[in-house]
Amino acid sequence: MSVSAPEKLSSAVSSNPLLIGKGLPPFNDIEPQHVVPGIEQLLTSLRASLAAIEADIAANLAKSSPATPTWETLVEPLNVITEKLGWSWGIIGHLMGVKNSPELRTAYESVQPALVQFSNQLSQSRPIYDALKQLRASAAGKSLAPAQQRIIESALRDAELSGVGLSGERKEKFNQIQQSLAELSTQFSNHVLDATKAFSLTLSQKEEIAGLPSSLLSLAAQAARDAGEEGVIAQSGPWRITLDMPSYIPFLRHSQRRDLREQLYRAFITRASAGDLDNAPLIEQILDLRQQQAELLGFSNYAELSLARKMAPSVSAVEDLMEELRSASYSAARQELEAIKTFAQAHAADFTELKQWDVPFWMERMREEQFDLNDEALRPYFSLPNVLQGLFGLAERLFNITISADDGSAPVWHPDVRYFQVSDSTTQETIAHFYLDPYSRPAEKRGGAWMDECIVRAKVTENNQSQVRLPVAYLVCNQSPPVDGKPSLMTFREVETLFHEFGHGLQHMLTSVDYAGAAGINNVEWDAVELPSQFMENWCYERETLFGMAQHYETGEPLPEADYQKLLAARHFMTGNAILRQVNFGWVDMALHADYRKDGDESVWQVRDRIAKKTTIMPPLSEDAALCSFGHIFAGGYAAGYYSYFWAEVLSADAFSAFEEAGLENKAKVATIGRKFRDTVLSLGGSRHPMEVFKSFRGREPSTQALLRHRGLVS
C-alpha cells in the first residue's frame, strides 16, 4: 500500500527522535532526514508557547492591579522553551562537528534560517524584556538566589545586545544580519573541512619518507587504505599524508625532504582560500556585517559589542595585556629563531635561509640534541588507556571524584566513542557522565578539540516530584587513532589537549548550581571560561600525575626518570615563539573587529600585516591565507575574544600557583586546595562574576607573574 506525502510527514514527526526533548540523545536512531520535519514541528510548538507567555503577560497588565512577575511565572516557562530548543538543536550541531555529511549539511542549512528567526523573536520579545525588568526591580527579584539574579541580569543584557530596543527598519536590518551571519559561519566551517579533506600527498618512494617516524608511516598507510589504495604495507607504502593534524604536524617536524615540507606547509596556510571553497570573501562579509550590527546597537565597533559580555573592560585593556606579553616574549622569540638558524647551518652544509617550513623540523632536531628528547620515542609511554588512568587518578586526588567506564549504557554516534560515569568518592553517588570521542576522522569530523554540553545540570520537577538532572558532557579530540593493532599512542601535546578539554568538562560536570542558566559553563564570561582547562594542563608535568599515566603500552615499564627530567627541562623550549604566536592571533582578531571597515583604508590582509610587524619575527608569506581557516573567530565563539586564552591563563596560572606554594608533594594540602578549587571555580559556574569566584578561591585578585613564570619568561 502506498503512503501519501502528508501521512509520511506525520509519521516522520510522530516518531522523530529529535522531538523527545530530554535525556540522552538516541544517536542510534537519528538520521539526517529527521532534521527538517523535527525542527519544523518543534518550532511550531515553541512559537505557540512563546505566544502564550506573551499573552499571559498582556492579560496580567490589563488587570486593575497587575501582579508582579515571579521566577515561577516568568523565567521557568521561558526555560522550558530554551531547554527544548537547546536539546534538539544541540544534537544537530554536535553531529555537524563529529559526523558531518552532505545530507546532514543540506538539512541543517534548510532549517537554520527558521531557527535564527525564532531565536530573534524570543530574544527581542519586548513584553518578556519589560517583565524581566519588573521582576529584577521587585522585592521578590531582589530576594532571589545570586544565581537567579545573575541569570535575569544576563537575560536582560543579552536581549539588549540582540536588538530588543530596535524597531522598524533597524530591527529588520539587524535580523537580516543575524540570518546572514549564521549562514556565513556555517559555510566558513564547511569550506575549511572540505579544503582540509581535499588535499593529500601520496608518497611511494623510500627517499620521500626519509626521517618519518614509524607511527606516522602506520597512520599514512592506513590513510592510503582508507582512500582505496590496494596492497598497502606500513613499511613499503604507499603512504598518504594529509592536512589533518596527526599527519601534518609530525610530517613537518620529521620529514627530511625540505621540498615536501614546503609543499605541505603551503597547502596548509592556503586552505579554503581559492575556488569554490574560498573563505576570503566570506571573511569580508562577516566583518562588515558584524560592524553594521554593532553600529545598530550603538557601539562604535564589533570589538566593543563582544566585550560587553566579557570580563575585559575595554579594547585598550586587551591591547595592554597583549603588549605586556609581546614585550616579554619578543626578544626571546627573536633569539630562539636565530638559534634555530645557527643550528641548521651547522648541521646542513647547503642551508642558507630559514623558512617557515624549516622551523618545526630544525626545532625538533635542536630539542632532540639539547635535551636528548624525542617526541616520537615518548609515544609508547602515553597510550590512551594509560593516559586516562592517570587523568582519572588526578581527578580523584584533587576533586574527590571517581570516574569509571560506563560503555554500552548510552547510544553513541561512532564505535570509537566511550561513555563514562563520574561519582563522588565519599558518597558513591553518581553526579555526572561524559562522552569521549578521541580520534581524528578527517572525512567527517572537524579539526581541533572541544568540550560541549549534552545535558546541563538543573533541578527539574515532573509529576510534582523534584530531582536534580545530572549533567552530561561531550569531550572531543582529534588525536592519533589506533593503527596496526596498537592503541592510540599520544604525543605529549595530545596529552595536554586531553587534559585541557577535561578541564572544561569538569566545570560542566562538577557544578552545584541547580539553575541551568548558570550551571557549569553557562553564564561564565567568555574570557574566564578557559580557566579550568588551562589549569588542568599544568598537571601533565606534575610527578605523581605523569608517572600515573606514563607506562610503556607493551611492557608496563614506567617512563625513565631521566626522560621525565628532560620533559621538565624542555617545557620552556621556544616559549617566546609560542607566546608571540598566540599574541599575534589575539591581536589580529581584536584589530579586525575594532579597526577594519569595508570601505576603509586597510584591507583585511593589510590589518593582518600591520599587526604582524610587531608580533612576528618571520613575516607571513605573501600567499599566507591562514585567516581563511581561522574557525575560532569566523565560525566559532571567539570573535573579538581570542585574547581570552591569555586572559584566562592569567587566572589559571595564578590558581595553579596556590598548589605550588603549598607544595605539590604535600598530598594532604593538595587535596584540601583541590577541594576548595572544586567548591569555587568548578562548582559555582556562572552563578557569580568570575572575579568574585576567583577571589573566593585565591583570596585576592590575580597577578600576571605566575603566567610569566610558568612560561619561563621570569624566574
Can you describe this structure in just a few lines?
The protein has about 725 residues and is α+β, with helices and mostly antiparallel strands. It is about 55% helix and about 10% strand.
Task: Describe the overall structure.
- It contains 28 helices and 9 strands.
- The protein has 715 residues and is α+β, with helices and mostly antiparallel strands.
- It has 4 domains: 5-165, Neurolysin, domain 3 (Orthogonal Bundle), CATH 1.10.1370; 199-271, no CATH class; 276-373 and 575-642, Neurolysin, domain 3; 379-524, Collagenase (Catalytic Domain) (3-Layer(aba) Sandwich).
- Helices cover 56% and strands 8% of the residues.
- Strand 7 and strand 8 form a beta hairpin.
